[in-house]
Structure formats: C-alpha cells, structure tokens
Prior knowledge:
Strands 1-2-3-4-5-6-8-7 form an eight-stranded mixed sheet. The radius of gyration is 15 Å and the shape is globular. Helices cover 30% and strands 35% of the residues. By secondary structure, it is of the alpha+beta class. A hairpin with a 3-residue loop joins strand 7 and strand 8. It has a single domain, classed as Aminopeptidase.
Amino acid sequence: MILRLIMKDKIVIKKYSDKYKQQIKNLIGKTLVDISVINKKDLPIDDSDLDKIKETYLKDGNFWIALKNNQVIRTVAVKSIVNNIAKLNRMFVLTHYHGTRVGQRLLDCALDFAREKGFKNNFKYSYKQMYRAHKFYEKNGFKRIETGVNKYKYEKILG
Length: 159
C-alpha cells in the first residue's frame, strides 16, 4: 500500500505495526483528554479494537499511522462494515499537530484505499467536542447525516 515520506517535516505515513500499539493507545487517550471527552483519571483507555487492531481493521480494511522521529502523531483506519460500506475510524492527532496538513495526508490515504477496495460509501462518527474535526470532514465532502447524544455521524459517497 501507500508509504509516503513528507520531506519538509520528515513525517512518515505507514501501515500499522504491533510495535506502535501502545503509542497509538496513548495518543488516542491523550487526544480524548485534550478535547474533554474523557477525564485524565480514565487513562489508559480500554478500547477492545485497539487491543486487536490486526483482527479488527486489517482483515478487510487498514490502519495507518503518521510518525515523526519514530513517534506516532496521528492515526486513521478504514474498517469494512457491509455491502461496500466502510467506516473511517480512529482519526486522531496530537493537538499540537493541528493545522499541519498531516491529517489531510492521512485522510487522503484512507479514502484512496477505500476507493481502491471498491467501497461506495464511507461514514464516520465524531464526538461533538471535536469542532475542528467537524470542519475538516465537511471541507472534505462529508455530510452530517445524524446527531446522537454525544456524537455526530458523517457520510461521504465514494463512487
């Protein structure tokens, strides 16, 4: 699949490897604390999909990380749901990397993969506190189609 080296900031985008599992969990936990979705006392996070990334995401989807100096700074995953529908998942970035275009690079990577795999529809849930993410998804053609108690659901038609 796609492996990209962004020369100006030396950020590498690559597929998931078990050696980054703890860094991924730490990044997601820290991000959720930073945007007030969870309290710091709730760390480390205990999400079963993050304990089984290979089984959850790599069978019919994929999971990517962005690395700077061998440290995970951003994540994104694509998970097959049913009938050519994919879920964009685990799109997280350390807050001090907001606005650096790393997220755009990862989203492009994930959407390219989804199209290559023949997915026709992609959806994404986003916590209501993720204001920057909402603008980001909408800028990239996602439409808000549902509002839940603490999340929004976005959809993008791929083909």
